[in-house]
Amino acid sequence: MSKIIGKGLPDMPWQEKPEGYDMPVWRYSQNPIIQRNAIPSSNSIFNSAVIPYKQGYAGVFRCDSKAVSMDIYAGFSDDGVHWKINENPIQFDGEDPEILNREYRYDPRVCFIEDRYYITWCNGYHGPTIGVAYTFDFEKFYQLENAFLPCNRNGVLFPRKIDGKFAMLSRPSDNGHTPFGDIYYSQSPDLEYWGHHRHVMSPYKGDESAWQSTKIGPGPIPIETDEGWLLIYHGVITTCNGFVYRMGCAILDIDQPWKVKYRSKYYIMAPYEQYECVGDVPNVVFPCAALTDADTGRIAIYYGCADTVTGLAFTTAEDLIQFTKQNNMN
Amino acid sequence: MSKIIGKGLPDMPWQEKPEGYDMPVWRYSQNPIIQRNAIPSSNSIFNSAVIPYKQGYAGVFRCDSKAVSMDIYAGFSDDGVHWKINENPIQFDGEDPEILNREYRYDPRVCFIEDRYYITWCNGYHGPTIGVAYTFDFEKFYQLENAFLPCNRNGVLFPRKIDGKFAMLSRPSDNGHTPFGDIYYSQSPDLEYWGHHRHVMSPYKGDESAWQSTKIGPGPIPIETDEGWLLIYHGVITTCNGFVYRMGCAILDIDQPWKVKYRSKYYIMAPYEQYECVGDVPNVVFPCAALTDADTGRIAIYYGCADTVTGLAFTTAEDLIQFTKQNNMN
Amino acid sequence: MSKIIGKGLPDMPWQEKPEGYDMPVWRYSQNPIIQRNAIPSSNSIFNSAVIPYKQGYAGVFRCDSKAVSMDIYAGFSDDGVHWKINENPIQFDGEDPEILNREYRYDPRVCFIEDRYYITWCNGYHGPTIGVAYTFDFEKFYQLENAFLPCNRNGVLFPRKIDGKFAMLSRPSDNGHTPFGDIYYSQSPDLEYWGHHRHVMSPYKGDESAWQSTKIGPGPIPIETDEGWLLIYHGVITTCNGFVYRMGCAILDIDQPWKVKYRSKYYIMAPYEQYECVGDVPNVVFPCAALTDADTGRIAIYYGCADTVTGLAFTTAEDLIQFTKQNNMN
Amino acid sequence: MSKIIGKGLPDMPWQEKPEGYDMPVWRYSQNPIIQRNAIPSSNSIFNSAVIPYKQGYAGVFRCDSKAVSMDIYAGFSDDGVHWKINENPIQFDGEDPEILNREYRYDPRVCFIEDRYYITWCNGYHGPTIGVAYTFDFEKFYQLENAFLPCNRNGVLFPRKIDGKFAMLSRPSDNGHTPFGDIYYSQSPDLEYWGHHRHVMSPYKGDESAWQSTKIGPGPIPIETDEGWLLIYHGVITTCNGFVYRMGCAILDIDQPWKVKYRSKYYIMAPYEQYECVGDVPNVVFPCAALTDADTGRIAIYYGCADTVTGLAFTTAEDLIQFTKQNNMN
Amino acid sequence: MSKIIGKGLPDMPWQEKPEGYDMPVWRYSQNPIIQRNAIPSSNSIFNSAVIPYKQGYAGVFRCDSKAVSMDIYAGFSDDGVHWKINENPIQFDGEDPEILNREYRYDPRVCFIEDRYYITWCNGYHGPTIGVAYTFDFEKFYQLENAFLPCNRNGVLFPRKIDGKFAMLSRPSDNGHTPFGDIYYSQSPDLEYWGHHRHVMSPYKGDESAWQSTKIGPGPIPIETDEGWLLIYHGVITTCNGFVYRMGCAILDIDQPWKVKYRSKYYIMAPYEQYECVGDVPNVVFPCAALTDADTGRIAIYYGCADTVTGLAFTTAEDLIQFTKQNNMN
Amino acid sequence: MSKIIGKGLPDMPWQEKPEGYDMPVWRYSQNPIIQRNAIPSSNSIFNSAVIPYKQGYAGVFRCDSKAVSMDIYAGFSDDGVHWKINENPIQFDGEDPEILNREYRYDPRVCFIEDRYYITWCNGYHGPTIGVAYTFDFEKFYQLENAFLPCNRNGVLFPRKIDGKFAMLSRPSDNGHTPFGDIYYSQSPDLEYWGHHRHVMSPYKGDESAWQSTKIGPGPIPIETDEGWLLIYHGVITTCNGFVYRMGCAILDIDQPWKVKYRSKYYIMAPYEQYECVGDVPNVVFPCAALTDADTGRIAIYYGCADTVTGLAFTTAEDLIQFTKQNNMN
To answer: Which InterPro entries is this protein grouped with (chains A, B, C, D, E, F) (predicted)?
Structure first.
């Protein structure tokens, strides 16, 4: 059986797969777990990241205000399901005021490496690029250099150095509603200078896997397993009425993560429920974080729904890996 | 406390703000008040205007037929909530057959000035422009010259002359689904010849108030208050799945209404409810009329929902003015 | 009273028109009759065709997989309402491997002519074109040449030869989300070579019948009546948030079917219900098949809903023909 | 023979039609008459207007600077061929600083009415609209209100009041490279307030006169003749490599100039010469002014060439009117 | 040495390759051979076809009028260089008035098969498609059915039946300035019904042969040689300033012409000369016809220049075939 | 007087400014210095870079082949005017075959730093990005990692380390004909890892300097002077017939080159000459290299003309700096 390499998390949110359900990922029965107006100023809360912290959980949340201004907020939870989100956005410290200057911030990820929590997000700097910061306590945040030139989105760190280097997936873009997008792998000795960029994977052009034919982007922090890095990502198709965002899965080589070992031609989850199909942007499921328990292989995925609310879904490493290998189209 | 300058309307539709509700505008609990097929020929009834008339209310309604042909219809109500809409569209008399020729008509407003009711609407004349007519009884309608050259939409009269001139807000456009749009102020000695055009306000380009970043347009007849003209308007953002129409508020100078005194960076209402999010055009709230009671400051807003049905919402002059001043970004 | 020319089908699915309902087509009360995941691999089942077969019914179904790959599947039913769809797509035999090569297949129609069942569908061959095949038993399918060069969609056969030739309606297109489209009539001595193409009808440019202003396409196999060929078709309008697909009706000359005798300016059905307004492509009703009973004039229409599920609706030849003649705008 | 109604101008620039030349308009043999850098700051001088003034001629010239900033400059000439253009742009006086504020100015026309010279031009005011000013001496210029809301271009006054009103042709547009455009007629009692807008003519959609299928716009001040107003205008076609601007002719009713009596299906001049085909915008001839001699019927047309230099061409009222009537497609 | 299979034509236009010239096709030294105004009504004469006829040559010419209306005209020449073009367009006889109705006609080809001359051209019939006609004498023309449904352009017949069928190349398109386009091969037993469509070749996506990356289309009637059918075609690239049309060469299998044996990655001719780079559409060379002499292998290519004038160029079968084989990228 | 900081180059190409010429940059009288077919395989040679080398000059040239494949070629010259370009493109050695894989290469720059010549160019790697290589002798070239993720163009190194880091200007783009583009400054300790990205300057939105309103990009290696880094760059405007590329000048802070000290609102050179206005892409001047003589301040600019040939132009540091300061709009 496939094994997650990492720590145990026995009390993480969990529900068993419903009887007779035949998809590899199933929804939490009380979804959405975070409503659009969970803090007074918010129009919508979605595309957000969580991580184990102390006895419970911490997170960084995308809250669009009622001005539809996009920013990221810290929050805390005892059980990973019920969240208390700060009413003010994160303030960053750092060396250079030019980098600290806020244009807009959205779609955060959180990654623990070595001794601290790193935050990456889509950061406005003459166009969207990848903001990087770290925190020890989710109260004080220290912002580093942007990782890349604009335009880029969906910067996702690996949870440990690979070949002695920090490693990040990202998805170069344009500065609008980008109708294209490949995933790349980049390396850094110091989280300041990035290079040795490698192409990982492209949208699939053609009918065989059309749900991911317009663009793809990495989702949660890759999960280390004995089969390789388990990557949950989003894929987009262009219909005559706009984009539909779905969720897919791939397995990357453990030492050379730009090499795709397996990639499922089927989506693992798609907008079926009312709260995923109706909202500010209809027909979107967008995963940004996952909790894992190495002892049981359980995975809890946090995902944005219709760009409006936040949902929770469950799977196991064994489920995802078997599904991906059986439906591999790599 | 802010005061509406005008007449009392003690029996106007009204519900108190729900307990614990923290937005400045709240919905009528029996929304939508007009269903899509309220007359036999209609596909949808929305973006419509009402006004006190005799002991009750009269209105001009946009009814798209089951051919999806757009026209405007008169209707009457005792209580402002239950409406009897004529089954045939308004017929206009007038001097010049070229002007009377109907291409299409939609998005009406109604304004009482001095001794009669003026109707303005989006009128097809080799492209959309602002049609103008008057009636004394909502039975006979007399059509004047179009106010402007094409292409223009959302022509909204002020309820009295300003500096001795009739005054109108409008939103120049293209002849498609216009991806831009500012509000302008124009003046006329006679409702025939228009000039002295002044720029009022633009969409807000940037994250600070992104809900109104694509285009804006005036909604109901401006409401005269001791703080200035209270303008409820619509603002539009472009998502990857199309436009979202929301409702905002500004306060214009009483004598020089092209000068914006306050403008809220937050929307005052947005598509949250099923009947606003799902319909022929998802995610639209579009205000076209307001009833006011000077004695209490109560305001009842009539708005189109998803380009399909008509909704009713409530606020007060005090609520809106305080909200706008506190969140001013002018 | 208008009469269908054809066979009786006394046990076909049927419900009487609801009391007080004033549209010419009414929905089945248990809609949708086929859910999105009615077979294990499916993301959605819609835009599908059925036909009487032996003691019951057979059909060809568009099932998009959970890779959102588009293919067509055979299925069977005793009552026309409850369907058993094969879990594997149709395999075609034929002469030329180049033609048999599958790129993608969607939006099938089924037509019985003389001694066998013909299938037409949108077939990928360096762009979409019209695939043609026949079967005697819905188990073995023999694929003929594509009827036309790319790009074309919605190829619909007539149920008998006309003037000694096979006859087909189609809708030339581009290879994207085609923003235009007329219906044409083409003839063939042998189903291999096609010619004598005739223009049938165009979208209606203008407000008078705006629901069909972007493009139109034929739906079910035309129904022979004593008034001419009854053609149910789809019409599309472009809103600021994408396409809306509705259903309309026309009557074509019995001997020269490229001549339109009557065409209704009103739609006969439009997306009103939740399962038609919400789904992978919101706001779509798309008819692909009809069952008819010549003895009673009853018609049962099968149609795709929001590109996600399959619905059933009822009408009669008398209803449709009277509606079309009374609202004729030809 | 057709007659110009107006003054004599015996010394106006003139060359006889070349032997064997069969088009109705012929070029000046020393074209271009104004080079791109005729003043030190200019990148290009084109789309400019001239008029008889004192013993010679005055003009208003579009000079794009070497910053490609667009402004208008006064100039003077003894013979209408050799011009001295001021090195600084026109400064306007006027009542309202908001109107006087310069965004950009281009494509001027000059028209003498009653006692003074009126200038109209494309004036930036939150988008292009029609600026209006007058001068008595081409030294002091007094700017009036903009005639219309944005977006509009090519505002061309008539040289006398019609039915007691000032009259202007214009071409509503978008604020980019407008791919559409009709000519309209508007009226004003005072040059301040405008109304009674009438549609004059549209681009010609179809092969019969494809050179004017994208957009059209009025050129010089209309020339009064015994056949009606002689209107020289530009017409545009969209090729796969952009727009081609050509010159056409129409005759408008003398009392109701929005009624087109004749309109030639053929262009009267097109980019043939190197200086018309090569330049900052290839393939443009753009007429903005005409001198006329009522005694002989001679007409001298000033036109921009490839948005870079200024050319001069000749014709007669008789030539143009006969050509237009013989090739009428109205 | 490669040999043309066909007749001798000893007096065809010819000039030897200039000393030191290293391209496979060289221009006639007196180009252009037909000026834009060679007939009184013409704006431009280009994209035209010629063929040996009696003792000299006949041709069908695209003459755009000074209304920029597109039609085709017959013409005659003793030497193939100096042409007398009729002043009126071709009139067609035929069976069906609907087919005979002229919308527009352009880009003709002429092909002798068995006993008569066939004309094909881009024919307007609710969009561009392939018109077909024949003549025995270039005076009376008999029009057959359109070969295909719209939209299609560049229909080019083969000069003899292949496998017992008439054969045609064509390039399906949209009805604008089509930014895509593959060449297809279609077959017919009778020139009335067409089928057995085969894909021949696509634009080349990528840097290796970028001049033909946007679209390609067949040019002159294919030339039969002992190596296969020699196909001269046009290829298009999209630059930031529009399309550039160049000329390329391929060799098709003699019995299965949809199989490309060789295709040169280099163009054989491109717009270098002033009359090819400057005109109504800059940067176009567009071949439509070729004369050949089987005895010497000489080939004379007639091509449109900048959509304005007609040029002549020379090569030999040996030159083209060697060039194509040596630079093959098939 | 402004001084260039660097070496003398007494024999560099030079011509004095023509008498009476009033622009800051003047053309070489024998332009173009390199014809489109200067090597047998070339369609065009332009956008190329030169540098002093041994007793003469070396260069890297963009030669588009007659397949319009884009690659870069080494070449040599004794006098900087007459060039001998290799007939085969540069071959690169390097560590990683994935990086060495050639998709396309264009628009090179050459920069000497410390002990070797660095080449940067637009390198195809799943989209355009910045390729980097070095050579000691223009015979063997060693390719390093790409500097950035796609999409990027116009990577231009500084000729020395700044603040201990290698420094590069670049212009992030999309992967088409990019209608936007700012210049950025990036730093690297080792030419492998890049970071500390800084925004330098944007297109100028507005009429004041419209020639650079669409996009801008760095040209030659910045020239060190006592006033700062002298940056010659290209600016683009969008006309209705496509882009026009012109040449501008800015002065960057010597220690913090992302700070713009001066920037001229006027262009310093624009397409005026036939070989700049007519060619594969009309209306382009595109500077890629400059030779300088510190003793005299002379500058010779090499620039591409109409994407077809290569031109040479002259100026001095004093001329450019004074012009830029006097016309500063920073």
So the answer is: Glyco_hydro_beta-prop_sf, Mannoside_phosphorylase
